[in-house]
Amino acid sequence: MDNLNKLNSSPIQANVDVKGYLFKVLSYWKLFFVTIIIALIVAKFMNDYKPKIYSLDTVVSVKEENNPLFSTGTNIAFNWGGASDAVETIKVVLTSRTHNEKVVKKLNFFIDYLKEGRYRLEDVYGYTPFVVNLNTSKPQLYGKLLQIEITGEDTYKLSLDFNESHSNSLITYDTNKTSIYNSVETSFSKEFKVEEEINTSFLSFSLKKTKKFKIGEKYFIRFNSFDGTVGGNRFISVVGITNGASMLRLSKSGTNKNRIVDYLNTTVLILDKDKQEQKILYAKKTKDYIDEFFVKEQESLKRIEKEIGAYKEKNNIYNLSAEGNIVFNESINIEKEQKDILEFNQYLNNLRTYITSHDTYGENVPVPALISIQDGKISGEIANLIQKSTLREKLRGSVTDNHPDVIKLSNSINLSKNNLLENIATLKVVNNNKLKKLSSELSLSKSKLKRLPKTEQGLLQFQKNYEISEANYNYLKQKSYEAGTAIAANVSDVKIIDSAKDLGNGPIYPKPSFNYLIGLMLGIVFPLFYIITKEVLDNKIHTAEEIQNNYAIPVLGVVGKNHDNNNLAVFNKPKSSVAESFRALRSNIQFLFKNAQKDGSKTLILTSSVSGEGKTMVSINMATVFALSGKKTVLIGLDLRKPKIYDDFDLTNDVGVVNHLINQKTLDEIIINTQVPNLDLILSGPIPPNPSELLLNETADKMIKSLQERYDYVIIDTPPVGLVSDALELFKYGDAIIYVIRQNYSEKGMMRMIDDKYKNKEVSNISYVLNDFSVKNNYGYGYGYGYGYGYGYGKYGNGYHENEETKGIFSKISSLFKRNNS
Fold first, then answer.
1. How far apart are CA 224 and CA 228, in angstroms?
2. Single pTM value for the model
3. 504: left (phi over 0), alpha (psi -120 to 50) or beta
4. Please, are residues 81 and 66 in contact by the beta-carbon 8 Å criterion?
5. What are phi and psi of 711, to 5 degrees?
6. If you count DSSP H runs as helices and E runs as strands, how many of each does the chain have, helices first?
7. Can you give the residue ranges of every domain in the chain?
């Protein structure tokens, strides 16, 4: 015990008490428990309330594929393949408005299939026992919920409510036009049979049964905006699987897996179909020309055949002579070749004019008059040009001309145009040289022809015309067959590697485990934030360690929380932990009295910073423990402004110190014997107008000196030093001074003034007492402060002290109005 004063007067500690903060945080375990439970409940609600979003994908390969049976080396005179589109171009096409309009129209995705769910109308596309067979050429009620209630095995009731204004919007999907329907009635309800056509001014559709009907089930359908539906489905994700590879992964998210699967698979099928049509666009136009030219040649062959027969019969000549056959064979070959070259030159001229006069190239591109001599490079460049031009126009429907893919395609188109024009110029030079040679050969053949008889010359001319027409007929017939076969057997550039399929994938949002983790984290973070904020803003005294670490005046001890309505805790419950804490203070204060180096009577001054810190309660019980130890003790109430001691002893405050100081009463007349053995009491008396002057006069000095002669201990309850200066003037009488601090009440800066006086040696023999201390507060370690501070050993004190009853919440509230801890 000799080291107590040295221990308590140790230098202020500046180290951060990590262990203390940890115990502070752990002391809020109930708050953590509640916030975590609430956060997990919120997370569960969010998992249930938020619509579940699923994501599915399909993998395709985009690679140029040509049918090996019909390449540019085959007799068919045009290229059946064509250059493959860049992967980046395919990405833009898949998200373009034009492409997605085709998908939405094919699937009728503008029709919503809904069912009442727990929180909202749920999308049940693909799960309904029916599908809507819509007449898209007629107007439909737009944006309204139509209720379908199953009433029988093959019957249902259609119900709807019109707008209160009677003005209702209609939409016709074939033309994508809206109109207005003015309804007379406020609602519509009628029963229909499956497959029965609903034909009204505002609806035109029927239901096709796909599953067994369950009577009583209710569904809803709704017709939405075509453009809005396209816009909502355009932005599917298209990414390359690996860098430099031609494989793409198409993925789409939504609340309904069936919709995602159908949309992804249909968008790939339409892309495949469009790619094939782009590849064979020029080939199909040429095939149409072959068929048209074939019919003409067939009619021409029949006409020439009749003319030959009539000529032979008229001139009585049926066969050519040997010399005529020779001339015939020579001239027919020369004329046929010359005719082909001239027609091809004419085609090249038309093609050159078309290329130079157009910026876009499509189905109106010229086709060759004679297919057999068309150059393979020309046909390949034309197919490539048409394909790229078509793709560019599609892109222009969704992006601007400054888009990188459009610029890239434009550059590629210009390159193809230049290549095509160079090939045309080269071919014309070659063809003109051939024509010069053929002209000389034809002149020689004609000179031989003139030597034949006139009738034979006429027959020979008919024979040549027939031979040329028959050759063209047979050739076109063969090429028509080849062209049809090649078009039908065209190989697509788009290959489906993995089609979209529902494999039981879980939702990508919300993720229950992730939400629960977030909820757990927030359940921990919010209390931590509250604790940190409270700690930063808190300026109250909570522990004896805080006093030691921040002030120079030592801590004498702590006093526990008094749960009684009366401040006579030691007298009323001498075995309580509070009584034991005052006995410990009585033992510890002897060190202060020894420092005073005074024998005989001891005077103890009690003060505090402000009212309400428990100064009076400590004064009463310190006087009681001295008196119960057999010492003659007097308790003086010198808090003249706010007297309260009388109430705890069930007395009135009519007579007291004030009456003596103004010479109305003698000292003996104001001393009151109490029920506590050896304890006398002097009340403050009526509240005077000049308390400071009374305490500083000579009578007050004589009174205290007289009491010191009569009693072993003089206990003086003074006013708070933080409010008035009276207590400082009374310090001169004290052999020891107790400065009362109340846990969770006194502010940290309140003791600065008295602490500075202690450091400057203006005040000595003073100690702090921490009052109203509870080991269960959120700022201690939870195990008490032991004997050194005079407050038990926490739960280990059971059996040594009287156990105070644990009060209920209503008792605690009631006691707040009855207690007075000033």
1. 7
2. 0.61
3. left
4. yes
5. -115, 155
6. 27, 24
7. 4-50+510-537, 281-489, 555-818
For residue 564, give the DSSP letter.
S
Strands 633-637, 679-682: parallel, antiparallel or unpaired by DSSP? parallel
Average pLDDT, the chain: 81
Q: For residue 58, list its beta bridge partners.
A: 250
DSSP 715-727: EEE---TTT-SHH
- What does the block give as tokens for 257? 């897996």
Do residues 705 and 617 touch, judged by C-beta distance below 8 A? no
Most confident of 145-159, 392-406, 595-609, 638-652: 145-159
Percent of all residues in the chain with a pLDDT value above 70, rounded to a whole number: 80
* Alpha helices in 540-680, H assignment, sequence order: 544-550, 569-572, 577-588, 590-595, 615-628, 645-648, 657-661, 667-670
Choice between 478 and 262, residue whose per-residue pLDDT is larger: 262
Res. 73: pLDDT tops 90: no
Name which of 626, 644, 633, 648 is nearest 582 in CA terms.
Answer: 626
The residue-averaged pLDDT of 626-653 equals 91
Express as a percent the part of the chain with pLDDT over 90.
41
Please report the DSSP string for 106-161 in residue order.
Answer: HHTTTEEEEEE-SSSEEE-TTTSSEEEEE-TTS-EE-S--EEEEE-SSSEEEEEEE
In order of 457, 467, 684, the CA distances from 306 in angstroms are: 18, 14, 152
Q: Could you report the per-residue pLDDT of 547-584, keeping only the tens digit for each? A: 998 899 999 999 988 888 888 989 988 888 899 999 99
Q: Which strand (E) or helix (H) includes residue 269?
A: helix 257-279
The number of angstroms, rounded, from the C-alpha of 596 to the middle of its chain's C-alpha atoms is 72
Phi-psi region of 76 (alpha: psi -120 to 50; beta: other; left: phi over 0): beta
Distances (CA, A) of 676 to 601, 626, 649: 19, 11, 10
Distance CA 531, CA 538 (A): 10
- Nearest CA among 307, 345, 302, 293 for reference residue 472: 293
Which residue intervals of 358-498 are DSSP H helices? 376-396, 404-449, 454-488
Please report, for residues 135, 161, 186, 725, the alpha-carbon distance to residue 165 in angstroms, rounded to integers and kept in the order given. 27, 11, 9, 82
How is 510-533 classified by DSSP, letter by letter? Answer: S-HHHHHHHHHHHHHHHHHHHHHH
Q: How far is CA 642 from CA 620, 660, 720, 734, 751, in A?
A: 15, 18, 10, 21, 21
CB atoms within 10 A of CB 292: 11
DSSP 689-700: S-HHHHHHSHHH
Q: In this structure, which CATH number among 3.40.1360.10, 3.40.50.300, 3.90.1150.10, 1.20.1440.230 belongs to the domain 555-818?
A: 3.40.50.300
656-684 pLDDT tens trace: 999 999 999 999 999 999 999 999 999 99
Spacing of C-alpha 325 from chain mean position: 89
